[in-house]
Amino acid sequence: MAKLLIIDDESNIRLMLRLALEHVGHTVEQAGDGIEGLEKFGQGAGWDLVLLDHRMPGMEGIDVLRELRRRNPHARVVMITAFGTVDLASEAIRAGATDFLRKPFTIEVLREAVEAALSERPHLPHIANAAPQPSLSFERLGINGYRLASLPGLEHHPDQSVTKVFSVQKTEGAGRACRVTLTAAAVEQVRQHALGSPLPGGDTFWEALCGEALANYLWQNVTLPTGGQLLVEELTSGLRRWVDAVVQTAGAVA
């Protein structure tokens, strides 16, 4: 069993988390804000996982995350929030978070996310002073305890729609295939939204957009799409922001 640190300013949330995780054998300590959490964390020796609230008075969770990873680049951190979006989740993943939990969540989802994070090989965060860029790879994305892995190939259909298949794994169970299809209408909306700017990466762009759509679905619903099929019929505001960021980044690099 693991040694866990909970950093959250709400005492009732800390209590719920502690009881749920101690019940399955983990050793749990608590901190009421980011400063106390960093004091207890020290240089990270002996801690297997940190459960970190996003919105706290004083020091925001994302800043605490960056400091945790600066002190120990191999620290495992699960961020928790009731206010975030999948964009924030992606920012947290880039900063080194192992997973991202959206409140409210069930005890089962909490325990599965913790077990998934503990089984994950620690990874190094992006360089702290590097400009954040939208990811064109979903091999490491963790949302609500799910892990996404891109399977080879992108299907181009005669009607101009595209389909990408992902393997979605929860905890240590077998991965389940999930097909994400961008309809012809959604593909055309992407091209129109880009206003004639070239879409970078060829098939990689469409694969990553499918991954972003699936990540959004898992973020909102905390479950796989019915029948393992996700049909994207329109460009949502979140996907529009993702397309904007990718196109702008590509333009800046060019």
Automatic annotation (TrEMBL):
GO molecular function terms listed in the Swiss-Prot or TrEMBL record: phosphorelay response regulator activity; transcription cis-regulatory region binding
Domain Response regulatory residues, every copy: 3-118
Provide a GO CC annotation, any one. protein-DNA complex
Residues bearing 4-aspartylphosphate? 53
The reply on keyword Phosphoprotein is yes
InterPro entries given in the database record: CheY-like_superfamily, Sig_transdc_resp-reg_receiver, WalR-like
Q: Which PROSITE patterns match?
A: RESPONSE_REGULATORY
Record bears the keyword Signal? no
Q: Name one GO biological process term.
A: regulation of DNA-templated transcription
Keyword field: DNA-binding, Phosphoprotein, Transcription, Transcription regulation, Two-component regulatory system
> What is the name of this protein?
DNA-binding response OmpR family regulator
**Organism this protein belongs to:** Armatimonas rosea
Which lineage?
Answer: Bacteria, Bacillati, Armatimonadota, Armatimonadia, Armatimonadales
